[in-house]
Amino acid sequence: MKYILASGSPRRKELLKLVVPEFEVMVSNIDEKLKDGLTPREQAKSLAYQKAKDVFEKTEGNRIVIGSDTIVVKDNKIYGKPKDEQDAKNMIKELISGDRSHSVVTGLSIMAQIDGRTEKYKVSDETKIYLTDISDKEIDKWIATGKAMDKAGAYAIQEEFAVFVEKIEGNYDTVVGLPVYQVYNILKLIELT
């Protein structure tokens, strides 16, 4: 069976290797625009599905395409990737305001074609993150690493920013960008059918 990851994210590649040792990478070129009227979970699932569908439609034969999208949410506001360094700083300041907690939602979509049969799966997972207080100097130092710019919410839990994470409630892999347990369970379902 050919497995394809519809993402160029190095973090998602590392996580998928825990479940599927060999796979191809084909980056989706969808416009990651949010749709009006969807909940954060629906947004993440929709974007993940669009990525998987884009790659699925560009490929042929027996294959399993895995798409994923991660968003950060606080007080019903969705934080995507920052536009620039000032936007990144503003995001982090908002995430540490109030109770210093927010949610990370990762949508997962898996599309499979096996001997002419097509299956589609769309799920999501949510993890709550609690940050410590972060000074402006610490925020500037983090942003200066350059690692904030391609991350939802302007941070990466698996990078130096980890020192500001007080605790998490939920799945760590969901925060990194690919809920491995869901990938594994869906692939088991596909193999059983």
Features:
alpha/beta, Maf protein, elongated, seven-stranded mixed beta sheet, 28% strand, 193 residues
CATH overall fold name: Maf protein
H/E order of the elements? EHEHEEHEEHEHH
Distance from N terminus to C terminus (CA atoms, Å) equals 14 Å
**Fraction of residues in helices?**
25-40%
Q: Mind summarizing the main beta sheet?
A: 7 strands, mixed
Number of spatially distinct domains? 1
The shape, in one word, is: elongated
**Name of the CATH first level:** Alpha Beta
- The number of strands is 7
Radius of gyration: 17 Å
- The share of residues in extended strands comes to 25-35%
Task: Label the CATH architecture.
Answer: Alpha-Beta Complex
Q: Which structural class do you get from the secondary structure elements?
A: alpha/beta
Low-confidence stretches: none
Number of DSSP helical runs: 6
Mean pLDDT: 94
Model description:
With 193 residues, the chain is of the alpha/beta class. It has one domain: Maf protein (Alpha-Beta Complex). It has helices spanning 10-16, 40-57, 85-95, 136-144, 172-176, 180-192, and strands at residues 2-5, 24-25, 63-74, 77-79, 101-114, 117-131, 165-169. Helix 3 crosses helix 4. The longest helix is centred in the first third of the chain and has 18 residues, at 40-57.
Topology:
Blueprint: E1 2-5, H1 10-16, E2 24-25, H2 40-57, E3 63-74, E4 77-79, H3 85-95, E5 101-114, E6 117-131, H4 136-144, E7 165-169, H5 172-176, H6 180-192
Parallel strand pairs: 1-2, 1-3
Antiparallel strand pairs: 3-4, 3-5, 5-6, 6-7
Helix pairs in contact: 3-4
